[in-house]
Design brief:
By secondary structure, the chain is α+β, with helices and mostly antiparallel strands. The chain contains four helices and six strands. It has helices spanning about 1-10, 15-20, 40-50, 105-130, and strands at about 20-25, 35, 55-60, 70-75, 80-90, 95-105. A six-stranded mixed β-sheet has the order 2-1-6-5-4-3. It is globular. The relative contact order is 0.20.
Length: about 130
């Protein structure tokens, strides 16, 4: 998933959004229920970009069919270092229709939950502005 990885690494969140399917489902490491839709997922990813520091991908794995990918990353949230993985599935058009993120350790996931919680009003406003 070179295009997604390069867009994230470049901080080009418009390019990231362009890679999302309209009906993408985002599964957060810190929320019980998944989030659906391109506008909301893009807004969440923008929030994550504001929260993560020293983000870098460290490993990339691909499924045999070319539609499943895993991108292992490291980052910080405040003083908490974390390791995580983006699990990505592509639809028939090559767009991301499923994105699940997992992080560890628990203390970093808790710091991420708190930081993203503080972002949620802004995330909601950004998503609604994109829906129009």
């Amino acid at each position: 998933m070179r295009a997604f990885r390069e867009a994230v690494e470049a901080g080009d969140l418009d390019a990231v959004e362009a890679l999302l399917a309209k009906d993408v489902v985002f599964t957060s490491p810190v929320a019980f229920a998944p989030y659906s839709g391109k506008a909301l997922t893009a807004a969440i990813l923008r929030g994550v970009a504001r929260v993560f520091e020293d983000f870098r991908y460290e490993q990339e794995l691909a499924g045999a069919d070319g539609r499943d990918h895993a991108l292992v990353f490291s980052a910080r949230v405040g003083d908490r270092a974390l390791t995580g993985c983006d699990f990505i599935h592509l639809d028939e058009e090559g767009l991301i229709d499923r994105l699940m993120v997992m992080v560890r350790p628990l203390s970093a996931a808790q710091a991420l939950a708190a930081a993203m919680g503080a972002q949620f009003d802004r995330i909601t406003e950004e998503a609604q502005a994109r829906i129009g």
